[in-house]
Amino acid sequence: MLEIWWFKVYFFVFALFGIEFFLLSKKTQQYWPGQLLAQDFHTGAHFFHHFFSPKIYNLMCFLRIFCFMGMIFPHYLFSLVIFFTQIYFALRYRGSFNGGSDYLGLIISLGASLILLFPGNTLVIHGVLYYLALQLSLSYFFAGLIKIKKPLWQKGLALPQFLNHTIFFKSTLIKKLTQNTRLMFLLSWMIMLWEITFPLAWLNPQWCLISCAIGLIFHLANFWFFGLNRFLLLWPLLYPILYLVTTKIH
Amino acid sequence: MTLFFAFLIFILCLYLVRGRTAQNRWLFIFRAFFPSWKFFEDATAQYKLYFKEEQQEWRPVIHLISRKKLSLFFNQEVNLCLALDTMVQRLVMDAVEEKFDFNASVSYELVKSLVEEQVRSGVFQFKISNGIQDVLISPEHTKKLC
């Protein structure tokens, strides 16, 4: 079953996001004013106006940060707080704050809550572990499948376009990398093939380890080039679960 | 094995629901429950927001930033920029893909107020470009001096 250290990392990562949300509190009120967001809801606009107020937002941040306690006492209540605050933040930012990482965050917190809520129920635990491992595999598989259908990705032209349009000041390293068309072509195909073949990790625990190691390098690169820290913290959180599932199958 | 196939059916149902999220306001807001996992899909659809004041040139609204130490743990500046990019993309989706009266939409008001933050006072305009062409140009707005 899932080791206690996994839950410690889980609570640490999600509480950390709470600090990030809190540090963004002022900017959030400025760029996503609750009064305006409430207009998205034809019914209950008055409720949502208050629900999105700075007070409630900060309360959600503090509740989330308090979940650091889960590292000492891995109780389901802390995990449920993470799950519900995850929904709140998704609503607060009109469906998504940080794209796919929000979606995976919601799925992980739901899974962790269920495991902690039913600690003795092997059916629930196995169900959750399979579900999380499946979502992890699908996330890479669909990302690869979509890319491989695109002519720009097939020709290796999409990757340099993305690298040239990050939110960071362009470095000389990126300039040199993107000018090397052969390297870009090779890297594009390596990414697509690794993503699309990721579900093969289910077939063999050793293959699973190799796929996950490549995944870690992939997310490190994404973090360095695009600043996607949440992706680096969340996706590898599911690697031990996938490994656990594959070892159970074989 | 039965459990595994039950999961596959469950996932398939989720993706069928996901296909409808763009048409339904409520499903769109709760789209986090139905992930599509489409990352780095379309290199040609990278929208950038620009603004100009009266006779000046178009200038970007979201500025480039530099990497920070400890950004693995505290990356709020980058994540804010990414969230603002999502806000711009949502307006394009409202305006171009759904073709409803986007001038009155929440997305439009959010982007307008984001631009307003950069404007000192007077008449301003904003546009969204995909690098090849402008996909949206706003009418002229006026920011009053506070």
Protein architecture, described:
The complex is a heterodimer of chains A (250) and B (146). Chain A contains 15 helices and no strands. Chain A is an all-alpha fold. In chain A, helix 1 (4-23) packs antiparallel against helix 5 (54-66) and helix 13 (205-226) packs antiparallel against helix 15. Chain B is α+β, with helices and mostly antiparallel strands and 146 residues long. Chain B folds into 2 domains: 2-40, no CATH class; 48-142, no CATH class. Chain B has helices at residues 2-18, 25-29, 76-97, 106-116; strands spanning 48-53, 59-60, 122-129, 134-137, 141-143. In chain B, a hairpin with a 4-residue loop joins strand 3 and strand 4. In chain B, helix 3 (76-97) crosses helix 4 (106-116). The termini of chain B are far apart. The model of chain B has no long low-confidence stretch (mean pLDDT 78). The interface between A and B is large, with 65 and 53 residues.
Which tags fit this structure?
heterodimer; A: 250 residues; mainly alpha; 15 helices; globular; B: 146 residues; alpha+beta; 2 domains; five-stranded antiparallel sheet; 4 helices; 5 strands; 38% helix
Task: Produce the secondary structure layout.
The complex is a heterodimer of chains A (250) and B (146).
Chain A: H1 4-23, H2 25-31, H3 34-37, H4 45-51, H5 54-66, H6 76-92, H7 100-117, H8 122-148, H9 151-154, H10 158-164, H11 172-179, H12 181-196, H13 205-226, H14 229-234, H15 239-249
Helix pairs in contact in A: 1-5, 5-6, 6-7, 7-8, 8-12, 8-15, 10-11, 13-15
Chain B: H1 2-18, H2 25-29, E1 48-53, E2 59-60, H3 76-97, H4 106-116, E3 122-129, E4 134-137, E5 141-143
Antiparallel strand pairs in B: 1-2, 1-3, 3-4, 3-5
Helix pairs in contact in B: 3-4
